[in-house]
Amino acid sequence: MGLQLIDVHKSYPMRQGRKRVLRGIDATFRRGERVGILGRNGSGKSTLVRILGGIEAPTRGTIRRSMSVSWPIGMAAGFHGALSGADNTRFIARIYDRPVRETVDFVESFAELGDYLRMPVNTYSAGMRSRLGLAISLAIDFDCFLVDEALAVGDTRFGRAFGARLARAGLIIVTHQPSLVRQLCRRAAVLADGTLTFFDDIDEALATYNSL
Predict the structure, then answer these.
(1) Angle between helices 100-111 and 157-167 (to 10 degrees)
(2) What is the pTM of this model?
(3) Which structural domain, as residue segments, surrounds residue 188?
């Protein structure tokens, strides 16, 4: 099947009551398909991304997984800032039971970070962190890539390699940029008021989003 969300709710405690972010989401993401999720700022996109990536659990509901899904590519969190890019790569390779030396060599070849790969990640620019995360995700070879916000890898050897890999894998991109959805996806959904509405027609999804 892939990844399935059944009546997923998410709320956070506040000083008075709870803030409800997701309100009964039902969704199925099949292996190999490419889906764009559009949402305005504050709509709950980051919360949904963390739940899809397994970083955060729903308050209520069920999640079923029968494919591997990457961590949320594009989020600033996830790396240990005091460790080098190479050390972060080794740590992740061990978690996913991948050959450590082979994984580091792959990331070094494709991330195009040069000497920075041996420097602490907290010295990296946002773009360098993104390239590191994208390169490691390629090395792990997930069934589905989960992308949070803009995906900008450029016309480099790595950028072309990542684009080619995306063409052979599933993709869930959560963004506020309609152009990315039109460019990369075959199906789309709109996140608004804590609910997720799917559209088989990309133009219909974009029109609904633009009307919000």
Answers:
(1) 120
(2) 0.83
(3) 2-68+142-210
